[in-house]
Amino acid sequence: MSVAFAGNSATTGSREAGPLRVMIVDDSVVIRGLISRWIGAEHDMEVAASLRTGLEAVNQIERINPDVAVLDIEMPELDGISALPQLLAKKRDLVIIMASTLTRRNAEISFKALSLGAADYIPKPESTREASAADIFHHDLIQKIRHLGARLRRKAAVASPPLAPASPAPAPRSPVARPTVPAPAVPAASSGALTMRPFSNQAPKVLLIGSSTGGPQALMALVTELGPVIDRFPVLITQHMPPTFTTILAEHLARSSRKPAAEAVDGEPVKPGRIYLAPGGKHMRVARSGADTVIALDDGPAVNFCKPAVDPLFTSAIDIWHGSILSVILTGMGSDGMRGGKDIVAAGGSVIAQDEASSVVWGMPGAAANAGICAAILPLNQIGAKVNRLFAGDRA
């Protein structure tokens, strides 16, 4: 397989036009070939290099100068978690997506990678011969590359605006045209241009949270501030994440919040004082069982390409708590949570969205904001305080 190298130094940063350059680092020739074909079929990305080990990636990154790296965890010579900080030391704005199979060890390593600067993670299917697993891997990987790469370029454009020339520059005699690929459409960042709703005049009785890309870091930061709410009200979270990974996330949430947090179990009562996390591979809903509210797990098809998805949780909660719902939509790709949020608002509840500047990807919260269903659009570091005030009786 041919390897393309960029002539410019890594210190020049990412290009603002042309396809996203992706470096694939995996010791499996099958996985490298598969990802290379998928990327080659996309108009807005290209394979910059296909490498077998982390050591090759570290040694060659300055010549390759990729925008995005898909980095396997388990490799000979230098594994992914060891290569990660070395790659970022040589190219600090590199978007790194960790790839791993669904084992507890790899899930733990993926969480560590996020704390070391990886932008995201993606689980690899156990076998690429399983069509459904390969299709999900294909869809999720391409979307992560596209959206995280586009965010990188927007940040670079803001940091380095083009300078107007002092005098007209002469046209080159032999111009080489390269297509300019537009970044995915992103909603307007200014909440001033968006329709805002008043908060519900009904006191909230439950907190619902939905998140995706960038969600684990956001959730762990948010729950540290929610102790007063968790003590008195149930908190239910859907994070787009596969099995095993949600087990680890629940443990991290318990440590961060110092409150009981666990994957939800079908049929268990929903009570104040604990955090319920949708388990990977299952939709989490709530339902009535006599006088109790219980967890109802659903093994149905994916919703918004996700399983678990946020919309099923949001919509099911209306039958239980009606308009006494406060929902928070955090960073993530796509629009999951927007339709459920509309239903919550129609029932009399409220929606808070994370703002663009503090989101890894402003897809889910941006969709809610642009739908005009939000009562507030806030930076992550202001959401916890606002939630606490609303549950304490503030209605503004």
Q: In percent, how much strand structure appears in the residues? A: 15-25%
Can you identify the CATH class of the largest domain?
A: Alpha Beta
Structural class: alpha/beta
How far apart the termini lie comes to 60 Å
The SSE order reads: EHEHEHEHEHEHHEHEEEEHEHEHEH
Helix percent band = 25-40%
Low-confidence runs: 1-14, 163-191
Strand order in space, largest sheet: 8-9-7-6-12-13-14
Instruction: Report the strand count.
Output: 14
| Global Rg | 22 Å
Q: In CATH terms, what is the fold-level topology of the largest domain? A: Rossmann fold
**Helical element count?**
12
Largest sheet: 7 strands, parallel
Tally of distinct domains: 2
Average pLDDT confidence is: 87
The CATH architecture of the largest domain can be given as: 3-Layer(aba) Sandwich
CATH superfamily of the largest domain: Methylesterase CheB, C-terminal domain
Silhouette: globular
EC number: 3.1.1.61, 3.5.1.44
InterPro entries: CheB-like (IPR008248), CheB_C (IPR035909), CheY-like_superfamily (IPR011006), Sig_transdc_resp-reg_Me-estase (IPR000673), Sig_transdc_resp-reg_receiver (IPR001789)
Biased composition (Pro residues): 162-173
Subcellular location: Cytoplasm
